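Hi team,

Filling in the usual template for the complex we talked about on Friday. All components are listed, including any nucleic acid strands or ligand strings, so the model treats them as one assembly.

SUBMITTER: L.P.
PURPOSE: interface mapping
COMPONENTS: two
RESIDUES: 346
SEQUENCES:
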Amino acid sequence: MRVLGIDPGSISTGFGIVDRQGSALKSVCHGNISPGRNLPLTGRLLAISASLKEVLEAYRPDAVSMESVFFAKNAKSAIVLGQARGAALLTVANYGVPVFEYSPTVIKLSVTGFGLAAKEDVQKMVRLLLKDNGIAGKSDATDALAIAICHISSSKSLAVKGEASRLTLRRPV
Amino acid sequence: MRVLGIDPGSISTGFGIVDRQGSALKSVCHGNISPGRNLPLTGRLLAISASLKEVLEAYRPDAVSMESVFFAKNAKSAIVLGQARGAALLTVANYGVPVFEYSPTVIKLSVTGFGLAAKEDVQKMVRLLLKDNGIAGKSDATDALAIAICHISSSKSLAVKGEASRLTLRRPV
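RESULT (copied from the run log):
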C-alpha cells in the first residue's frame, strides 16, 4: 500500500509518500513545492499542479491523504488555502486516485497516540516511525508524511475494527 | 475581444461569454455548471473543470474575468469557495488564458455606474447592455456575464485613461 500525503498551501505545499510493507512503514520520498512568491496566483497553482503530476506519475500512489480544514485566520487566508487545495484535489482527481481526508486530531492521534499532541512531537514520531532521521524538523513535507501515515494506520485499524468505524475515522472526498 | 466571466461555487458555477464588437456588447453564451450535490468533492471539482474546458475549447476567449473574494460567512464556506476557484483557475491557466480579478464594487460600478448597486439592478443592466431579455433574473450565469462586461468596460476605459489606472482597476492573477 502506497499513500501520498499532501499538505497544500499557496506559498508551500508539502508532499510525502509512505509505503506499508507488512507492518513496517517506509518513507519513499518527500518534499516541498514552493512556487516563487512573485508568481501570479495562476502561476502558483500551475506550479503546484505540475509538481504533483510528476510525483503521481513517478510513484503511482494507491491513495491520497489530506488534512481536513475548517478553520483559518480569516476569510482571505481561507480562500487562498482553498485555492491551493482545489488545484491539488483537481490534479489528483484527474489521475483517478481516491482522496481521503482526516481531521488534525485524528492525524495527531494516529501518529502519536494523543489527539492534542504538539506539532514537534508529531514530527519526532514521523522520524521514529519511518526510521529516518534525515526528515527535516519543521516542514510541510514532514506534515505531509504524518498525513500519509494516518491513512495507513487508519486503514490497518479499520481492517480490524471493521467497516463501522469508517465514517467516524475517515472521510473520502 | 471575447471575455469569459466565471462566478465559481461548489454548488453552482456561473459562466458567460461576452464579445465586444466596436462599441456594442454581445452575449455569446452563458450557463450554470451544477455538479450533483451528492457527488464527492473531487467529483464536483472535476465536473467544474470539464465544463469549463468545453467552454474554453468551443469559444476560445481572449481573457477570463473573475470577482475577487475577501469575505465569506465563515472559514469553512471560504475554503469550499476557494477550492472551486482553485479548480476553475487551474483549468483556465492550463489553456494559457490570462485571468483578471475585479472587486464586487468595481463590477457594480462598471455595469450600472454605481458601486453599491443592488444585485437585481446589476442583473437588469446586464440584460439591457446585452439587449437580451432571455437572460435569467437571478442566476450565477447572469453574475458571470456582469463580470465579463466589467473586464471589457475596464479595458475600454483603460485604453483612454492609460496604464496608470491599471493597478487600481484591475488585478491580473
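MY TAKE: Residues 140-161 of chain B form the longest helix (22 residues). Residues 2-172 of chain B form a domain with the Nucleotidyltransferase; domain 5 fold (CATH 3.30.420.10).

Thanks, L.
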